[in-house]
Design goal:
Layout lengths: L1 H18 L8 E5 L7 E7 L2 E9 L7 E10 L4 E6 L2 E8 L2 E4 L2 E4 L3
Antiparallel strand pairs: 1-2, 1-8, 2-3, 3-4, 4-5, 5-6, 6-7, 7-8
């Protein structure tokens, strides 16, 4: 009777431990390939959420820098899903680049 209980507990621990690793490659500083000095991402992880700070220049209003702070959850190692007031937006990681909206980001070399 003790062996099945141990197996269930061990399985639960392994599942929980495995969940924390999803999306870990997103963490860090990412620069827009076309505009690395004015458009970049800062991604961190805490409290079971990814915190995505999108830094850019507001080209439509006043040409001043702005920061949009978003929260995301890892759906897999290569996809973060961001919930907005208009629905969800996915951020994809492929070939060491992040594809988000109309931008492509990479880590500085």
């Amino acid at each position: 009777m003790r062996n099945p209980a141990r197996m269930i507990i061990l399985s639960g621990i392994l599942v929980i431990a495995g969940c924390n690793d999803k999306g870990k490659n997103f963490v860090g500083h990412w620069e827009d390939i076309k505009e690395p000095t004015t458009s970049y991402l800062e991604i961190s992880f805490s409290d079971n959420f990814y915190h995505v700070d999108v830094h850019s220049i507001d080209r439509f209003l006043d040409m001043k820098p702005k920061v949009v702070r978003l929260e995301a959850q890892a759906m897999s190692d290569s996809v973060l899903t961001i919930r907005t007031g208009f629905g969800t937006v996915d951020m994809r990681l492929a070939d060491d680049k992040i594809y988000f909206e109309q931008h492509t980001y990479q880590k500085p070399k």
